[in-house]
Amino acid sequence: MVFPLWRVRPSHLYLRCSGIHARRCLSTPRSTLSPPTVNLLGAEYPTDTTTNVTSSISSKLGRNLHLQSAHPLGILRHLVESHFHDFTAFSQFSPLVTPAKNFDDLGFPLDHPGRSLTDSYYVNRDLMLRTHTSAHEVEVFAQGVRAWLLSADVYRRDEIDASHYPVFHQMEGARVFSGNANSMRDLEEENENLSAHLAQKNIVIEDVPHVSETNPPQAGHDPRHSELVARNLKLSLNSLILALFGGRVGASEANPLRVRWIEAYFPFTSPSFEVEVFFHGKWLEILGCGVVQQRTLISASVQDSISWAFGLGLERIAMILYSIPDIRLFWSQDPRFLTQFTPGQIHPFKPYSKYPPCHKDVAFWLPDSGLHENDFCDLVRDAAGDLVEDVKLIDKFTHPKTNRTSQCYRINYRSMDRSLTNEEANAIHASVESRLKSNFGVEIR
Ligand code: PHE
User: Fold this and answer.
1) pTM to 2 decimals?
2) Pick from 380, 236, 331, 327: nearest CA to 12
3) Which of these, 95, 129, 138, 222, could form a disulfide with 155 (CB 3.0-4.6 Å)?
């Protein structure tokens, strides 16, 4: 893998992390004091020095796009639930979770970059917006459910472009097996049936071993059981992918659906995998999965069992299935968007006219404490809302004499619903500049 980071572009998954942690800011310096409480989903929460939820983020809580039956995300959720029809489906968990639930219970190391204030949204040091649906694994397993799905909105601070938005939706799925010989024999038979079914279909799968030295079974697992469970996970997901994409995105005999499995690393599964689908000439990552770390099942008081779990990104899949070109569209309230979708059906999105973009640059000297790109992007998002389409660092240099560093970002403003006037864009841009000065003490050049 070229970028061995959790923030692999354009990933939405927690991937292998590297020495980058050391360079990440753990705190966001702010000169403005936040109010003593913040209102989220109708309740007041105390703030502290870690608070970094912005009003543009808190306004997204409770929108629950995945629950709207005629919204592409709701339709996709429903399709996945229909495919795994004997799984119990959950979709009403609160996005406010403790860092313990989101990270500690899943074995995230203390220096994992996902924990930092630059990467996640904190209400205060004891409460955050979940960054992935895996945050609910322990509590769902603890209910004793043996096969389940859970869909939800998740929140991550990130860059701004057509495929990144600080709120997106994931669907977690898991299945628990008894670890005894009978159950493993049944699983072996089920695997043979699934595999025979897939063999007849127009799908080309590049695979990796179910377990290997670099993607090992867990110490407490019988390696043969681990292998059977990993194989079942792969077969189950290949069937889902076939159900979602097969025949829809130009798959034909001459041009079959291509799927590739890649070894991955997650703190809460081993062996672990990612899946990519070949679409319009590119490999797109759509999910992460693996054999659940036994620690999770033990925390949930599930005995003598072994489990697989996956987490898939709904926006990523919906953008492919519906040909939706910009992730902001999912949040559109424009009837020209919303009326195009029908429950249970997938047909390509018909773009309405694309309005002209308007780009503006902002160049500034960095403050001594630095400025993380995600802090910059959140500030722009807060000033511009969904009128910001793209943010790119276009220039960076350090003055040889003063040793000060200057950065120049190009911000592309564009509305998806109407023409933006130059005056409007100027006013938003002026607000970006003044927030940069007051919140981060930067000097505009
Ligand atoms: N929660 C992981 C992520 O968002 C995906 C995942 C889910 C991986 C379940 C393994 C098992 O990156």
Assistant:
1) 0.91
2) 327
3) 129
